[in-house]
Amino acid sequence: MRSFVASLGLVLLSVACLPTRDGTVIDDSDLNEDPTTDAPPGTGPAAPSSIEPTGAVTLTLTADQGAANGDVVSFGLPFPQGVFTNEKNVTVLDENGAPVAIATKTLAKWPGDGSIRSVLVAFKATLARGKTKKWKVEYGAAPRGGDAGALAANPDGPVIATLTADHYAASHVGGVLGTAAKNERFAQYETDLNRGWDSFDIGDYGVDCGSTSKHRTYYDGPHAQYQRALRTGDPTQLRGAHAESIWFRENELELSNNRKLAISKCQREYAPGSWTPAKALDWGTLRMMLSQGSLEDYLVTGDPAAREAVLAMGEAYRQNLGALTAGSPPVLEITERNLGWTLMGLTSYYALDPRNEVRDAMRSLVDRAIAWQGRGGSGALEHDINRPDPDECGDGPAGASPFMTSLVVDGMMDYWLLTADKEKLSPFMTKLARWYEDDARTSDGAAFRYLWNCSTNDYDTGDPDGYTSAELNLLIAHVFGATYALTKDAHWLEFGDEMVDHGIEEMFAKRPKQWNQASRAFGKYLGYRELAR
C-alpha cells in the first residue's frame, strides 16, 4: 500500500517512519522504490543539457531566517535525464574546500530510463544571521566527507542552500528554461517582471473562488514564482516560491480518503455537497489545482508535503477521468483549460509515480487533445465558445481560446519532457502554431484574439472590452518555442520573437493574476530558444 507524507513536517533521510508537525507518524519507505510495473522503456532524454555526468556546482548558503549553530541544511540537487544514477556520489565542500558529512536520498527518477531527477542532500552547518557562504557540490565521483547518518530534511530552517541558475535551468527541474542573466534579447521583460512583483504585496491577496483577478495563486502562483526563481538562482526568490507553495497547500487544498486525494476547497463553493471521484470536478476547481509548482517545490526542496500534494491531486484527477470524459461534450472539452490543467496535474503525478495506470491516464489526455484537434479543420481545439461564458460570446459553435489553448500546450510539453514522444506531438504542434499565426491573430498582427471565431464579437484590434491584449502574448509565446523544439523550424522562433516584442510593450504584471500569467511559461520560451544555439 502506497502511503503519503501527511504534512509539512520533517522527513528522516535514513529511516522509514517519521513524525509530522502534528505528531502523526507516517511511513515514508516507498520514496526510493521504482513504482513502474513495466521495465523502464529506455528512451533517451527529450532535450539536451550541458550538465555532464561528473562535475561541480556552487552552493550558496544564506542564513536568511536566523542564525544556524549546527543546524541541518538541506536542498534538492536536480539533474537532467540520463546524467546521474547513484545518489551516494555527492560530495559537499565547505568554504575552505573541506568535505563535510552528508546524507543523501533520491527524490525522483526520470521515467524514461530510471536515472535520478533529483536527490535530497542534507548536512549540518553554522552560519550567523544574515550571512552568506559559498560552498561547492561535487557529483558523479566517489563521495568524500563521510555519511552523516540520520538527518532530517529542513526546507524551512534558518539557512537556505541554493544552486546556480545555470544548473537549475540545465537540469530541467522546471522544464526547459532559459536563465534571466542570458536573456539579453528580452532584457526588458526581466526588468518589468521584477518591477511588477515589487508593485504589490502578495499578502494582500487570498483565496477568492469567485474572482480570478483577486485570487492569489491563479495561473499557479507557486509555479510562476519558481519559474522566475529557477532562472535567477536568487535565494530570496527561491525561499518565496517555497513559501507560496506552503501557502497554497495550507489555504487551498482539501485532502480526503486518508490524504490520498486532494482537490481545491473551491469545489465546495462551486458545487455544494460532498465530492467523490464519480462526480466531475467543477471547471473552476480544475483551474485551482496547482500541480506544477508543487512538483517544483518537491524537487527543489525535498518538502514531503509537496510530494503529498502532487500525488493526491494527481490521483483525484485520475479517479475523476471517467466523469470528466463522460457526456457530449465531456467536461474536458467544454473549454481548453479544463483539459490543460488536468493534463498538467497528471504529468506532475507521473513525474513522481510512473506506474502504468498513471502513465495511461496521462497518455489518454494527450491522445484526446490530438483527436480533438483532428475533428476540426483549423488546427485549433474547436468547441462551442458560448457555453463556457455566454457573456463573452453570444454565438460561436466552432471557436477557440488562444490563451487557454496555451495551457494545453504546457501540459503536452510536460509529457514530452518525460517521454520524448516527439513523433506524436510534432504534427499536433505544427497545426496549432499555424492556426495561431494564420487565423488567431488580430488584424494588426500584434496580438491574439481573446476568443477566435466568435460571430458576435470578433475580438480584433481595439476590442472595446479590453479582453484582447498583446499582454497575453507572454503567456502564449512558449507555444512557438515548443513547436521549434519539436520541429527545428526556425520560423517559429522568428514569429515568437515578433509576438513577444509586442507582448512586452503591453506587459502589465502589477497584480498576482497578471504577474503569474507573465511568468508561468515565458522562461520555457527562452529555454526553447536556447536549443537553437
Chart the SSEs and their pairings.
Layout: E1 17-19, E2 25-27, E3 55-62, E4 68-78, E5 90-93, E6 99-100, E7 103-109, E8 116-127, E9 132-139, E10 160-162, H1 165-171, H2 187-198, H3 221-232, H4 235-252, E11 253-256, E12 261-264, H5 267-270, H6 283-286, H7 291-301, H8 304-324, H9 336-352, H10 356-374, H11 402-419, H12 422-440, H13 473-476, H14 478-487, H15 491-505, H16 512-519, H17 522-530
Antiparallel strand pairs: 1-2, 3-9, 3-10, 4-8, 5-6, 5-9, 7-8, 11-12
Strand order within the widest sheet? 6-5-9-3-10
Q: Would you tell me the overall average pLDDT?
A: 93
Helix and strand succession? EEEEEEEEEEHHHHEEHHHHHHHHHHHHH
DSSP helix fraction: 25-40%
Please tally the helical runs, counting DSSP H or I stretches of 4 or more residues: 17
Largest beta-sheet details: 5 strands, antiparallel
Low-confidence stretches: 1-27
Distance between the termini: 47 Å
E-strand count: 12
Measured by DSSP, the beta-strand proportion falls in: 5-15%
Q: Give the overall silhouette.
A: globular
- By secondary-structure content and strand pairing, the structural class works out as alpha+beta
Rg from alpha-carbon coordinates? 22 Å
